[in-house]
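STRUCTURE:
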């Protein structure tokens, strides 16, 4: 499958299909379905400096074309991850991307400083976390706040820095440009869209936090548009995600300019989704006499 080889931030990946943060555990969870070593890259669960138990109440709610989630970044904390999970992820035979978040710039900094002592391939900075010192608004909503976080983290991290953008930003293109100017090596987008669900039988709002993140096929056309716009506006690589369910979806994002794609909700619908997407992408290239995936990247 040399046709699928992809370079991102100076790292060579066997293919451009990654498992999205929070949807693939630490990789071992899917080994009963296929060998995780075939995956281009594994994104860890979203980590924070301190362990988080996550949100109360219902966490997952199915929609006609996707799911809504209110997990609340449940995770064991950075220290537990590096001591108990990281080496197992690395032993799976693929590239490792570590996703980190924080509720204050100090938490981001301390978490990154801990991760600096460990070897992995790319740091994915989640700026969708609520900034507790600014009334709870996510770091990734306003350009100046996002630029501040990236500008603080970039000089500190020893790993290539990929910033994960929220579609709920005031202006996704300006947000991307702000992160690029602050030093981001790559961008990944989009995270979930904010939505709401009401249970008409109980006559109550489904989620304890009222609003939750929507993912899945319903968001794909909007995510694709945003990825296309950002790819046209920045000079750093973009990793696309949002409702990718099969190889045709993945091809759309790559043709729109994405260097690689992340697969999230599809893993819950079809545990073999990533394996099938990789296989079908390679077959598409073979059938169309395309020697490298790079030949069709950003053609639109």
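SEQUENCE:
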């Amino acid at each position: 499958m040399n046709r699928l080889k992809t370079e991102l931030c100076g790292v060579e990946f066997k293919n451009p299909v990654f498992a999205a943060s929070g949807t693939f555990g630490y990789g071992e969870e899917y080994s009963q379905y296929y060998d995780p070593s075939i995956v281009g890259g594994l994104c860890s669960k979203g980590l924070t400096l301190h362990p988080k138990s996550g949100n109360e109440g219902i966490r997952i709610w199915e929609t006609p074309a996707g799911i809504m989630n209110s997990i609340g970044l449940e995770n064991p904390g950075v220290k537990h991850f590096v001591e108990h999970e990281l080496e197992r992820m690395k032993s799976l035979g693929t590239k490792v991307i570590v996703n980190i978040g924080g509720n204050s710039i100090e938490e981001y900094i301390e978490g990154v400083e801990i991760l600096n002592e460990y070897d992995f391939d790319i740091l994915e900075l989640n700026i969708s976390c609520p900034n507790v010192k600014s009334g709870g608004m996510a770091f990734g909503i306003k350009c100046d706040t996002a630029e501040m976080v990236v500008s603080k983290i970039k000089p500190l991290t020893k790993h290539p820095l990929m910033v994960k953008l929220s579609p709920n930003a005031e202006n996704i293109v300006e947000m991307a440009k702000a992160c690029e100017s602050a030093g981001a090596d790559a961008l990944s987008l989009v995270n979930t869209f904010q939505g709401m669900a009401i249970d008409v039988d109980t006559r109550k709002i489904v989620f304890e936090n009222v609003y939750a993140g929507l993912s899945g096929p319903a968001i794909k056309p909007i995510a694709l548009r945003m990825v296309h716009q950002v790819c046209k506006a920045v000079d750093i690589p973009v990793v696309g995600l949002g409702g990718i369910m099969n190889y045709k979806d993945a091809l759309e994002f790559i043709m729109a300019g994405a260097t690689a794609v992340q697969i999230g909700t599809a893993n819950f619908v079809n545990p073999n989704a990533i394996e099938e997407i990789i296989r079908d992408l390679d077959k598409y290239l073979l059938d169309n006499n395309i020697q490298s995936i790079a030949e069709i990247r950003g053609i639109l």
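REMARK: The chain has nine helices and 16 strands.
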